[in-house]
Amino acid sequence: MAVFKVDNVEDLYEIGEVLGSGHFGQVREVRERATGIPWAGKFLKLKRGVGSRLGLERKSVEKEVEILQSLQHQNIMALKDVFESRAEVVLIIELIRGGELFDFIAEKESLTETEAIEFLMQILEGVSYMHSKHVGHFDLKPENIMLSDKQAPNPDIKIIDFGMAHCFIQGEEYKSMGGTPQYIAPEIINFEPLSTAADMWSIGVITYILLSGLSPFQGETDEETLKNIVAMNYEFEPHYFSRTSSMAKDFIQKLLLKDQRERMTAEECLIHPWIKPLTRTQMAKRNRSSINMKNFKKFNAKRKWKMSYNMVSACNRLCKLKLVCKTKALEQQELRECESDQEDTETKTASLLRRRLSSSS
After folding, report:
1. Which string of DSSP letters, residue by residue, matches 272-336?
2. What is the per-residue pLDDT across 197-250, written as a single tens digit (0 to 9) for each?
3. pLDDT tens string 39-55
4. Residues with a known catalytic role
5. Is 42 left (phi over 0), alpha (psi -120 to 50) or beta?
6. Would you call 128 helix, strand, or coil by DSSP?
7. How many angstroms separate the CA atoms of 146 and 265, rounded?
8. 42 has binding-site annotation
């Protein structure tokens, strides 16, 4: 069961500056009064009633809290406290200052496969622990893989955002159509029963991008991307993978398998020869191979631009919505005044998928 406190959060934490905001609330820096330790406070608005459109369902927040309270690992964002009032829930979470892993890598001039593996190993260790607790993340993507502190000599990877995570119960069948198109597994698109193997597909996609700067299934539209995933339409183009080791390609191939039962688990990934070389020859090959940094920088710049574009687009839609609502309210007011005076005197499968999936990154 998720544990919520009814104390006033401001009695225990000093509320600081806004770090970010979204549709359902904002994240602020907070400082624990008793210890002076800084944390992040995630202030989430709750729906006030059954018909309310604003805010989150308490059940969805409860689910995320319960999952985070069950996960204690250095590569997973820590949850310290949860406070609840009538109108909102406040999650006190680990303050992660290092930014996204992909942004950190894009700042480098070069990166060998061996150096990239140091980061990938941490992701796999976090996912392996998560899966050992029967939890699937279901939204692994670059935006949700952060660094604790990029100034540290060996920064820790932090997996964040468990809003779509699910804890499996033995004998349960779980289906979902959530996720970001270019990172989701084919079983999600086909609305088949899911397992933690869906996360391993996402790791395969992330690794492919990391090494080449190319997204394996990305199409011109979300519909085309989804079709490419279902058709397993990807390849290792020589132009982008000329400096990639054969072991790295083998690693990816053993994750991008349509049958989720055949994919490597996180534990199996950690002992794959690319991650853990068995011979000096394998180690030497890995050290001589490097990621396609020029193309990776292009991919990351485009990804960040798209994120900014989506944010601006969302803000514009919100402004238009407010304007429409205001106009309708004025029209209704005028109509009521007039009445007072008178009294005194498609549905395609792919389109459905796009609507049901979260916005692409």
Report:
1. STTTS-SSHHHHHHHHH-B--HHHHHHHHHHHHHHHHHHHHHHHHHHHHHHHHHHHHHHHHHHHH
2. 999 999 999 999 999 999 999 999 999 999 999 999 999 999 999 999 999 999
3. 999 999 988 766 666 77
4. 139
5. beta
6. helix
7. 22
8. yes
CB 214 within 8 A of CB 237: yes
Per-residue pLDDT tens over the stretch 316-326: 554 454 444 44
Domain residue spans of the chain: 9-93, 101-299
**pTM of this structure:** 0.83
Q: Burial letters for 306-315: b for 16+ Cβ neighbours within 10 Å, e otherwise?
A: eeeeeeeeee
CATH of 101-299, one of 1.10.510.10, 2.60.260.20, 3.30.450.40, 1.10.357.10: 1.10.510.10
- Output the CA–CA distances (angstroms, integers) from residue 251 to 69, 119, 218, 220, in the order listed: 32, 15, 20, 27
Which residue do the tokens 């485009």 mark?
302
Which fold does the domain 9-93 belong to in CATH?
Phosphorylase Kinase; domain 1 (3.30.200)
CA nearest 92: which of 44, 158, 151? 44
Cβ neighbours of residue 52 under 8 Å, at least 6 residues apart?
A: none
134: phi then psi, degrees, rounded to nearest 5: 65, 30
Domains 9-93 and 101-299 share a fold: no
Q: Please, which residues have CB within 8 angstroms of residue 228's CB and are 6 or more apart in sequence?
A: 217, 218, 219, 234
